[in-house]
UniProtKB/TrEMBL annotation:
UniProt cross-references to InterPro entries, sorted A to Z: Cyt_c-like_dom, Cyt_c-like_dom_sf, Thiosulf_SoxX
Residues of the signal peptide: 1-27
Single GO term (MF): electron transfer activity
Keywords linked to the UniProt accession: Heme, Iron, Metal-binding, Signal
One matching Pfam family: Cytochrom_C
Keyword Heme belongs to the record: yes
Source species of the chain: Thiosulfativibrio zosterae
Keyword set includes Signal: yes
NCBIfam families (alphabetical): thiosulf_SoxX
Bilayer-crossing regions: none
Name of the protein in its database record: Cytochrome c domain-containing protein
Every Cytochrome c domain range: 31-121
Amino acid sequence: MLKTKLKQLITAVTISSAVAFSGAAFAADEDPLAAGKKLAFDKSKGNCLACHWVQGGNEPGNIGPGLIMMKARYADKQKLHDKIWGTPETQVKDSMMPPFGQNGILTDKEIDLITDYIYSL
């Protein structure tokens, strides 16, 4: 019970922080992979490093799996996109990863950019 409450609290804080700050703007002419990386590493947006190890990231978390060999893990890139967006079919029970699109934390364009970046790893 305490573990579940702690997970809910951490998720709520993560979502609140992501919604409260709307940094990580990207230029239209910016390389899409660079823009995706910027969003993924931005603590006020994707914040992937809070839970995942990503090559080149500072102070990565270890709650979620390392983001490596993503094409081997997700042969269909749309499934990775859906996982980040947060469709009911792709959510893992008791996962601390918020449904970024479903909750409005990230826009569809931001999720597209992050998906492209992560898929390149």
